[in-house]
Give the backbone structure.
Amino acid sequence: MSKQRTAAIVNGDPVEFLSDPGQTLLDVLRDELHLTGSKEGCGSGDCGACSVIMDGRLVCACLVLAAEAEDCRVETIEGLSTGSTLHPLQQKFLDHAALQCGFCTPGVLMASKALLDANPDPTESEARYWLAGNLCRCTGYDKIIKAVLDAAAELRQDRKSA
Amino acid sequence: MAQLSYLSPSSVDEAVKALSGTSTRALSGGTDLLVQVRSGRAKPDQIVDLKRIPGLIGIRVENGGFIIGSATCGAMLSEHPTLSRIWPGVVEAANLIGSTQIQGRASLAGNLCNASPAADSVPAMIAARATCVIAGPAGTREAAVETIVTGPGKTSLTAGEFIIAFKLPPRGSKASDAYLRMIPRTEMDIAVAGAGVSLSLDADGVCTSAHVALGAVAPTALLVAEAGQALMGSRLEAGALARMEEAVRAACQPISDKRGTADYRTKIAAVLAHRAAVIAWNRAKEQA
Amino acid sequence: MNKPVKPEDTSSILKVVGTRPIRPDGVEKVTGRAAYGADLHLPGMLIGKIKRSPHAHAHIISIDTRKALALPGVKAVMTSADMPDLAAEHYEAGESASNLRDLSANVMARGKVLYHGHAIAAVAATSNAIADQALNLIEIVYETLPHVIDVEEAMAEGAPILHEQMVTAGLGETPTKASNIATKHRLDRGDLAAGFAAADVIVETRYSSAAVHQGYIEPHACVASYAADGQTQVWSSSQGHFVIRGLCAKLLKLRFSDVRVIPAEIGGGFGGKTTVYLEPLALVLSQKSGHPVKMVMTREEVFRATGPTSASVVTVKMGAKRDGTITAAQIDLKFQAGAFAGSPVGAAVMTSLACYDVANFEITGWDVVTNSPKVAAYRAPGAPNAALGVECAVDELAEKLGMDPMAIREKNAVRNGVRAPYGPVYKNIGYVETLEAIKSHPHMSIPLGPNQGRGIAAGFWFNIGGESTVNVSINEDGTAIVSTGSPDIGGSRASMAMMAAEVLGIGVDQVRPIVADTASIGFSTVTGGSRTTFATGMAVVQAAEKLVTDLKRRAAETWGVEIDQVVWQDGAAHCLKAEKAPKGALTLAALAGSAGKTGGPIATVVALNAQGAGPGFGVHVCDVEVDPETGHVTVLRYTAAQDVGKAIHPAYVEGQIQGGVAQGIGWALNEEYVFSTGGIMENAGFLDYRVPVASDLPMIDAIMVEVPNPAHPYGAKGVGEVPIVPPLAALAIAVRQATGVRMHDLPLSPSKIRAAIDANAR
């Protein structure tokens, strides 16, 4: 079986990779590009640990064929902070102790970023439904939701003062 | 091992040709197909990605109705400025398919052609009297949504055929729809039962047209004509709703499986149809 | 709410303990850099995969691996023939003990397959795809056998027997006939008949719960590298790398010193990662192939072949006087062990009445093998199942007596000085305080609407201590390194750093905590049993205290005074004879900088077996609303109070409570193993194995009651396990209050609730 060549933009940088036709974007991110921050928890789109933002939409990287990423912009957890400055979501997750084992955290953070990009002022219920595709087995979600709402408030404040 | 290949045609003709092969599968959102390929339940030798064909993603208004490109993802439906107002039931049904992540990918065509009896968007589309525009080796044809799925995992599409668009008919005033499903959790589940209801009312709130469709209670989604007829001419008075529920229960022929018993599915289908009808009626009343 | 009850309250002088600093490993985890089991890549690494049984029960007639081995790219194929045939030997591994012969046969079937998904062969190949192809080329001939999964059916006369040589232990005399009942457990006190005779009211009831999985989001993963000289390295995500080392060495007859296990970050365990599944296989494949081998389970494999907890049936007969005094309790617990003996029924027996001061009781437990995956520890193993039966029975008793459910619990509550049903006399327990915390909580006075109900339940867990080793060293600039052998599964690096900082009198940011591998630190048992903050924390404090003594000696030598003239405060040595120290205090940095002149590096090790872990109690209250037409349960609000001793890092203590509650809610409402008639799990994925999602849950109010544990330097008690114990009963009772129907079988799925409501209406 012959490999296919794909060119995409990952975290702002142009990348090219070869993949088998059955390989997913997650396989390529982890095994070819060594961006192992995106995790595989199920391989069927049911846990959200592999959440990345592709052309502005939140997707499970395990449900995207690598070849589909041709010409796409892909944002992963590795691109969330700016240099050594954490994104407000990352900081709020630390402040609120919104992670325990940390395995679901990259996916939850990317999903939360997509939420706040789409809805800067979500209610608790909106945040809970938006994040329903990101399973966390450690926290009971309580502190995750608090961190997301707090980050949203801070980002709104930043926007106001900017 | 089968040699899998991936093709991303840029025209309908090219796609028709590619899909005429013996073991090819069309890909739009991939949220069902890729899971099946991974688990070995589907073993295609070619995957044909339809998303780069012009027109397959997007929503346009034509002659008072909507034409929805078949590979349009669920999130785009809810983002459209007017679609949710005119067809709230169709949009809410499509938006119930999976998580936010799935909404960024899953399409109406995929939800239909995966041919699961429990597909959420299908009863809503059937109740809305939506049709499909199908491209194939013999050109394009149009067919009602309820004619596509013939059984679990089976469709009436022939080799080389694929859906390029869905048409939602023009809508008069005082008309609306609703879709409800029952799942054990609040999200991330397959419907144990689902019900879509679409109503048109006269100025007094009397139903002048009524369509009721059910999911997950039979091998395919069902359009229950008797249930719609029970509502015709009514203002959803208790008697009409009771007759509608009776018709729904009579139409159900569910199985018992890991997601629910046949008895439960039948009872719930009636509950959901009742509630969806009330929601659709209230929405229609408020439509200008 | 913090409620210090200790006579000498130290919280006012604590500077670090009890605060909420950012965890030291946090940035790594929010930036995606933390390396978990599947994230390692080594040069020349192969992919290992497992061939699994398609049958629930069968003899293995033959295995032919020749075609698989001949496939280009396949570097090794193994079966149980490649592993030593071990004698039965008991091996203590933290929370769960293993029989090594059974464990060997669980990781690779020997002679028989005992459940669908049982490993039967494994391959190592140069790619995923080739490994998959190779699995399909392995030819196995089975002779299928009838199977049994239900625990009561497995106990019945004529049931298919899993192990022909197994006879029931604990019956007094050794039976001659093989049985699926591995062990009968028994605990009793007083005169049961007299106790029931003294009762005015008696309830007899039965509750069951389905098998549920720990559901950690990270599937099991490891990399093993076996070198030609016999030295091996294993990278693995587990709750205890020393236990991984011990089990690999024992199963493969290797020297412990030859097996170095390096702990990867662990993506959740909850007890399920305290044993081995992949590591011994990866080692054999690495040895056979001469390459490093990575093995990662799929989610489906996690469900089919790793530890769920037991399905159980609990029957309770309980009697009480009019005033609510419980006079007698008779409890019978039947637990599914899975394919090999070793369910947590022993702990269930011991915990079942632990909240109640009952004079007469008889508790029986049955450990029963079944054709399902061997159970593994899951958060307070055995206790939630038992509490479901007992707490619901107490609720039934209260209902029959017309008594408030809180009042009956207060009336019979265990207090200091009461002998626990499982033996010791309770000391420094906080159960009554925890009951009070719920009783006086605003939650209790929120009015309920139609179709809403409130459930109250209590729970208990022993908490354990155990063996830990800790190194603490002071760097040349006065910062500190704390090395432990305890994997951090939920923030323990933070609490270790905090306790060291507290003793040394420095900022927590000046302490770097690490989890050291098995070749870099002495033995430490698993992170489990709610032991790490207690036991490893005790070792951290002792090590830091030893260093303070050493630092004081160095300062005394520098000043030419006796050590008793030196005090350690705020990270510096202060001389009581000011004239001897004209330059003032000697800071940790100054002492570290001149360490070469005062005896060399400043470092110490403490290895201990911690005793005196204080038992933990929790009381939960939960409000639900039930849709009477669909049977759907909405959890409206949830408050959980728990005696935590002393919260070292309160945010992570709250997190443990909230996480345990969420798992308990899942167990109560929707989670279950569903088996086909062929013995195949039908819902081996997160779509149909329904763990709670964010929109299923409300905020969970975690109330920390602090009744200090004098055995711990800061009063800490274990907190991780208690919170999963009460929710099963709390939910079942709340549903009863909302619907008027008592549900006796978990999960409380909508279809069951609707059916029960319909049956009740008839």
User: Anything to note?
Assistant: The first helix of chain B runs from residue 12 to 19. Chain B has eleven helices and 14 strands. The first strand of chain B starts at residue 5 and ends at 7. Chain B has a mean pLDDT of 96.
